[in-house]
């Protein structure tokens, strides 16, 4: 089965054709990130306008690259939630138009489920059940993936998402949006123990995260130094902050795995590209004899292939929408 996947939940307009949930035939991504850099974060109105401008070319290109026409497509998957509402609406309405005109099933796809599905593309042998750490710019969840379409949240962030914390801390250090990647690169040159930062824990919820205190701690460290006219070494700040965030993620994830007796662990989302997170989990999982799966870096960020992959499994489960499908800004997984 060939599925066309369409993604427009944030600042990437993306489309892809994937065969049987696993084989990518095309993958086209257009991003408006350069414009958002001017404002230090995603401006929803600009994101929606750019989606509207380029979605038809992106989808056409994805079909052309896959050497197929809509006639050869078995279903149209689209991210309908969660995300920026105006941005989601562009993809949802475009997909509705295509599904109606081509008489193809319209498959509503949850953005976080799609991030998890990026692993089915990169790891052909991976099958549920497993536990997944989903870490992106908007979410930080520990998810029990019971089947391709049945999932339960075990832990979540109480405030900032991990990616959001990286981006905000990076901005204080003068790095442009989204700072997560720049911070990761800079951190490789620094000492992770140069600055002592807290490890916030959420009482009575051992799998939940809290990153806002950690973010405030690094911001205060930088501001206090600058008031004294001091400039702190950037690489050490980045390395210390990255170490602290990754430590929180790894600690809670491994605790959840142990308590739930799960030995297959998976990571997903933009922050799953983080080099320290990948290294530390590789080491810990090797020591504990757990299996660890990660998406290839090119599928960590938002893309259409992960949508097409998840939509394949949603379609097998008969999750088909009517043409009154709406976009939803927040929706449980
Ligand atoms: O999944 P994603 O592309 O979009 C959302 O669904 O939010 O995630 C974007 C987030 C941004 O916060 C970005 O800074 C972060 O992922 N990110 C990283 C890295 N690459 C992207 N954070 C830390 N280290 C990275 N290497
Ligand atoms: Zn995402």
TrEMBL record:
One GO term of the biological process aspect: tRNA threonylcarbamoyladenosine modification
Signal peptide limits: none
Binding of Fe cation, residues: 111, 115, 302
Cofactor note: Binds 1 Fe(2+) ion per subunit.
UniProt KW keywords: Acyltransferase, Cytoplasm, Iron, Metal-binding, Transferase, tRNA processing
Catalytic activity, reaction form: L-threonylcarbamoyladenylate + adenosine(37) in tRNA = N(6)-L-threonylcarbamoyladenosine(37) in tRNA + AMP + H(+)
SUPFAM superfamilies: Actin-like ATPase domain
Cofactor(s) demanded: Fe(2+)
InterPro entries: ATPase_NBD, Gcp-like_dom, KAE1/TsaD, TsaD
Pfam families: TsaD (PF00814)
Major place of residence: cytoplasm
EC number: 2.3.1.234
GO CC annotation terms, alphabetical: cytoplasm
Compartment(s) where it occurs, according to its Swiss-Prot or TrEMBL record: Cytoplasm
Top-tier EC class: transferase
Domain named Gcp-like: residues: 23-308
Binding site for substrate: 134-138, 167, 180, 184, 274
GO molecular function, one term: tRNA N(6)-L-threonylcarbamoyladenine synthase activity
Function: Required for the formation of a threonylcarbamoyl group on adenosine at position 37 (t(6)A37) in tRNAs that read codons beginning with adenine. Is involved in the transfer of the threonylcarbamoyl moiety of threonylcarbamoyl-AMP (TC-AMP) to the N6 group of A37, together with TsaE and TsaB. TsaD likely plays a direct catalytic role in this reaction.
Assigned protein family: Belongs to the KAE1 / TsaD family.
Record-given protein name: tRNA N6-adenosine threonylcarbamoyltransferase
Biological source species: Ruminococcus bovis
Designated gene of the protein: tsaD
């Amino acid at each position: 089965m060939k599925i066309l996947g369409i993604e427009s939940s944030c600042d990437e307009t993306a489309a892809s054709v994937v065969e049987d949930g696993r084989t990518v035939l095309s993958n086209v991504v257009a991003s408006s990130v350069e414009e958002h850099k001017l404002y230090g974060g995603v401006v929803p109105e600009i994101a929606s306008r750019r989606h509207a401008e380029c979605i038809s070319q992106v989808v056409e290109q994805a079909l052309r690259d896959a050497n197929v026409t809509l006639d050869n497509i078995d279903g149209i998957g689209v991210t309908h939630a969660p995300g920026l509402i105006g941005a989601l609406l562009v993809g949802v309405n475009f997909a509705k138009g295509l599904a109606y005109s081509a008489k193809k099933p319209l498959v509503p796809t949850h953005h976080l489920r799609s991030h998890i599905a990026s692993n089915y593309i990169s790891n052909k042998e991976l099958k549920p059940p497993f536990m997944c750490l989903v870490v992106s710019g908007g979410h930080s969840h520990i998810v029990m993936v019971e089947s391709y379409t049945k999932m339960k949240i075990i832990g979540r962030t109480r405030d900032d998402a991990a990616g959001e914390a990286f981006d905000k801390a990076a901005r204080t250090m003068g790095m442009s949006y989204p700072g997560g990647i720049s911070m990761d690169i800079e951190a490789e040159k620094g000492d992770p123990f140069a600055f002592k930062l807290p490890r916030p824990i959420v009482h009575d919820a051992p799998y939940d995260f809290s990153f806002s205190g950690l973010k405030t701690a690094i911001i205060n460290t930088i501001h206090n130094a600058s008031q004294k006219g001091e400039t702190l070494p950037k690489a050490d700040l980045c390395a210390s902050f990255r170490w602290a965030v990754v430590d929180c993620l790894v600690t809670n994830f491994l605790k959840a795995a142990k308590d739930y007796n799960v030995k297959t662990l998976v990571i997903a989302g933009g922050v799953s590209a983080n080099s320290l997170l990948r290294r530390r989990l590789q080491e810990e999982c090797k020591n504990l004899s757990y299996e660890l799966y990660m998406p290839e870096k090119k599928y960590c960020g938002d893309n259409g292939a992960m949508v097409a992959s998840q939509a394949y499994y949603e379609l097998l489960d008969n999750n088909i929408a009517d043409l009154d499908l709406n976009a939803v800004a927040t929706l449980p997984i």
